[in-house]
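Dear all,

This email documents one entry for the complex benchmark we are building for the journal club exercise. For each entry we list the sequence lines for every component of the assembly. Then comes the predicted three-dimensional structure of the complex as a token string, followed by one or two observations. Please use this as the template for your own entries, and keep the labels exactly as they appear.
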Amino acid sequence: MDGLHVAVVDIRETKLDIAAALDFVYDPRFGGIASFIGRVREHNLGRIVTGITYDLFEPLALNTFRAIGEKARDEVGEPLKLYIAHAKGDLGIGDPAVIVAAGTPHRDEAFRACRLAIEAVKHEAPIWKQEHYIDGDSAWSEGCSLCEEQRESELQRQGETGHGHAH
Amino acid sequence: MDGLHVAVVDIRETKLDIAAALDFVYDPRFGGIASFIGRVREHNLGRIVTGITYDLFEPLALNTFRAIGEKARDEVGEPLKLYIAHAKGDLGIGDPAVIVAAGTPHRDEAFRACRLAIEAVKHEAPIWKQEHYIDGDSAWSEGCSLCEEQRESELQRQGETGHGHAH
Amino acid sequence: MKTRIALYGALRDADPSGHVDLDVPAGCDIAGLRQLLIRHLRQHAPGIGAGLVERSAFASAEEILHDARSVPEGVELAVLPPVSGG
Amino acid sequence: MKTRIALYGALRDADPSGHVDLDVPAGCDIAGLRQLLIRHLRQHAPGIGAGLVERSAFASAEEILHDARSVPEGVELAVLPPVSGG
């Protein structure tokens, strides 16, 4: 789709760039630009984090981002510009891991497109986070299954217990 | 409140700066940063706009921004950093008129604080927009009454007709 | 007492000075001040509709003053037409 | 046929090469491939629980392949543990 930019950014080569994201979604027709930056936090589940390694299955991640763009356009309608970029590799505390920016004529559509996109990136894109802790230990995060049968039973369990995804 | 930055920016002196907003809400505890930029659009209600003049009652606007910060903190809890800045003066197409950025540990709180703040800035702060059109005409926008009695009857009318605020 | 009321937004058209000065009787409340302003504008700025002032709020630099509040003494006020920021 | 399956996330620990090669009978579906992978890992990477593979999806570079799909011939696949991006 036009007006969509998707990227996987190897952070050995370059950083995620919010200014580039905002430039991409700029349009004289647009009054509302909503954006989200996900950064590496120094704590998770009570443990002190020193860094995160992101692993991605790149071609499918990019395909997934494109599909998310189509879904956002179906959801909020035209015109829309959307930017989705995710980091790959070893990140330190405070480094941006993901950037989503959405530009639309009015703000409600921009917020909805931005939120829809970041939720889908987190729950649908083939990306894995390995946390490194201050004690030298590392662990791959508990994640969200992409397997249809598993997703259904996970969603059902969430409905029963009233818990959503914390991640 | 700590972690709150509010500003009215006279654009004869300087521009609104999204990078400054994102720097302000940075915190190693925060994984989610949501932001909104409102820009001048080239069209409104079918007319071609060439620019906008923003008039503000500054001391009360800043007080209102501070109250919005408290409300956001009550709504999403601690920790939260919030940045609210609105432009004053003559803006061209594409110029940023308002910037809101919210940083929190997780993304849902960041989105909610950002959205709450921009809605309140639009509906509660003493700010007026004069649109300039390509035919040389100008008009102050229809707005949202700050007068208690009027607000109640306006909200009631919206409920009856099912129309929300377009602005 | 004399009370100065600063004008904003569409109400700036009412007076190029950016304010109006009204004679306000002691004990007047904001609802009364509103009527005084409507009367003043009818005479000095007939282009401004009474409806706009009806939909406007009065405020000090600190807060909105609703209709039942007394007009504070010696304080410059502002009249705020419906707002349209963002 | 031989099918190469690339490993990601926690499943990378199953083989330092980043992939496993499985002998897949003709007509095998993804559900069958999953059982073959579980059996392979039980033997070669006993540290990987079968539960993780149960919760993983299989995919080509273009799309997720659900359980009823046939294993495509001559295509490298990937096994995707539960995701945690963002």
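Observations: The two ends of chain D are 37 Å apart (CA to CA). Chain D has two helices and five strands.
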